[in-house]
Design brief:
8 helices; globular
């Protein structure tokens, strides 16, 4: 076992452990911070595998932008900062589904690769990565940016109750204020008595 193998196992354990804390924590903000740790560990996995550019893109885009966007959305929607009982759900169904998916993927990969060593691919460059992202993957890239933008706009609308409110009709507003022209002509204006 090499140093790279030990680092991969350690970073994988950190990523899985913090990912489990993301979905089991009752603090919404702490869940976001555990997500930062999990995504940072994944960036470390990329570094160990020799994909430095992908690692820094992971840090800049996911840790630096997406998680900050999620935390801003939490703050804009006035979500509870402390522990919330609304986040408590039965853990058994999720654990069974997660374990089933994990075992299924393990069996699939073990059967597909049969523990054979594959030749290392050519090292990636920024040019090749840019061709893939903005060539074959440009549509998912743009769809994701529109999704994040719509989530931010939705958070702002939910946090501002006055944006969706309908204005009151003009007659009711005048009656509430007391400037109805009919009342003023008859001399029936109601005024608060001021003590002398």
């Amino acid at each position: 076992m090499t140093v790279a193998d030990v680092l991969l196992l350690a970073l994988g354990a950190v990523a899985v452990g913090s990912g489990a804390l993301v979905v089991t924590s009752s603090h919404l903000v702490r869940s976001g911070l555990y997500l930062v740790v999990s995504l940072g560990a994944i960036a470390g996995l990329y570094l160990v595998l020799g994909a430095e550019l992908v690692a820094w893109v992971q840090v800049l885009v996911y840790v630096g932008a997406v998680v900050v966007l999620l935390l801003f959305a939490v703050m804009l929607t006035r979500a509870p900062i402390g522990p919330s009982t609304d986040l408590d759900r039965p853990a058994l169904p999720a654990a069974v589904i997660g374990a089933g998916v994990g075992l299924g993927l393990t069996a699939l990969f073990a059967d597909a690769f049969r523990w054979t060593r594959l030749p290392d691919p050519e090292p990636g460059t920024a040019e090749r990565l840019g061709e893939q992202i903005f060539g074959a993957w440009v549509l998912p890239f743009e769809v994701l940016s529109i999704l994040l933008l719509s989530a931010l706009v939705g958070a702002i609308i939910l946090s501002r109750p006055d944006l969706g409110a309908r204005p009151a009709p003009a007659e009711e507003t005048r009656d509430e204020i007391g400037d109805d022209p009919a009342d003023a002509a008859e001399g029936n204006t109601e005024q608060d008595e001021v003590p002398a």
